[in-house]
């Protein structure tokens, strides 16, 4: 094992080492400072005998002359054990909960192993979040990747906590469900909010938490989702558990990637992000799925904030290409006090059709969601017309749609933070709201289903209209 004394160059979080005969890309290194402190890094670029090293703890206090660098001969690895459940780690995988080091059963490369496409199982069955606007209209399917598009200052952290507290499986394997939660670039008060919320609600024993604070090095932020997904893959494919991975905020990860790319002198792409942003995000998102014979699954819910609420920004734009749908939060609903402020029409789950219905949720789920979408889109047309001619001048049918729209947002989309609705409650509420409309307007549902669920008198009494 060779030790190199001295560095050629220090540039931000990077150091350059010359005359390295046989190094490997992403190989781990240890750097011993003159003060006796040891820091770790990994090789991120190789040019002939020159190695560019990314230092996890930053380069402050490092010397060009006396720093001693040792190549460790392996990529960065995450220690793994069933004991990870209930533990809290830093972004680079070190325990920060005061419970000591992890008793390591095995270690795995944080970059993961690519899934064989032939071995992938098509995602079916759903994860119940207890949130009607998600369960009813954009159902989260086990093994899916379904991002949440939010905006700065909106309630996405609160929504993430509610999903961790309430998410559960139905059917076989319901008790074998765990959550891996990764927070990137969050402030101290938000990190404390996450930790306190999980402990107070009693779910911490089935949660693995990774916290990367906003004042931590950006290099650690780039490692955080990879460490989290390595733990998720171990629990799913080695231990046979069903794992829900919630990652917030992907935009903070991408901005760290942009800063790191700039310090390496790479040519920037759109809005300064590196040209490989798409493939980098795909290397994270594609680690969701189900492998034949494993018994477990990895489901991802990445949360990202759209700068200036711009859905065409590179981060949400590329995320939308890779993932199977999206849940979009609406600032206007948020400002009117609706929680969660889910914008129904641009939200969708592309795998929903294969994981709902008889044997999964309920036979009428597809009919109910299709009709709710169709009716709510008519509400937007009626509101646009009312803004021009006034609500009093609308036709009787459009006035019914206006009433439906108000009740839909008040009772279906809006719900309390501690309210956990079953899929049956969500669907029954959806049918009750549809019963506010004239029967001839419900053209997405067959007559037999309407006969069973269309009850206008009960709906009018329930909603007081």
Topology of this structure?
Elements: E1 3-5, E2 9-11, E3 14-17, E4 27-32, E5 38-47, E6 50-55, E7 68-75, E8 77-80, E9 88-90, E10 106-109, E11 127-128, H1 132-135, E12 148-150, H2 156-166, E13 168-169, E14 177-186, H3 188-200, E15 207-213, H4 218-238, E16 242-248, H5 250-263, H6 277-285, E17 297-305, H7 314-322, E18 325-329, H8 331-335, E19 342-349, H9 365-389, H10 396-413, H11 423-434, H12 447-453, H13 456-463
Parallel strand pairs: 9-15, 12-17, 12-18, 14-15, 14-16, 16-17
Antiparallel strand pairs: 1-7, 2-3, 3-6, 4-5, 4-7, 5-6, 8-10, 11-13, 18-19
Helix pairs in contact: 2-3, 4-5, 6-7, 9-10, 9-11, 10-11
Description:
Keywords: ATP synthesis, Hydrogen ion transport, Ion transport, Transport. Belongs to the ATPase alpha/beta chains family. GO terms for molecular function: ATP binding; proton-transporting ATP synthase activity, rotational mechanism; proton-transporting ATPase activity, rotational mechanism. Strands 9-15-14-16-17-12-18-19 form an eight-stranded mixed sheet, with helices on both faces. A seven-stranded antiparallel sheet has the order 1-7-4-5-6-3-2, with no helix packed on it. It folds into three domains: 3-75, Elongation Factor Tu (Ef-tu), domain 3, CATH 2.40.30.20; 78-354, 3-Layer(aba) Sandwich (Rossmann fold); 364-463, no CATH class. With 465 residues, it is of the alpha/beta class. Helix 4 packs across helix 5 and helix 10 runs antiparallel to helix 11. It is built from 13 helices and 19 strands.
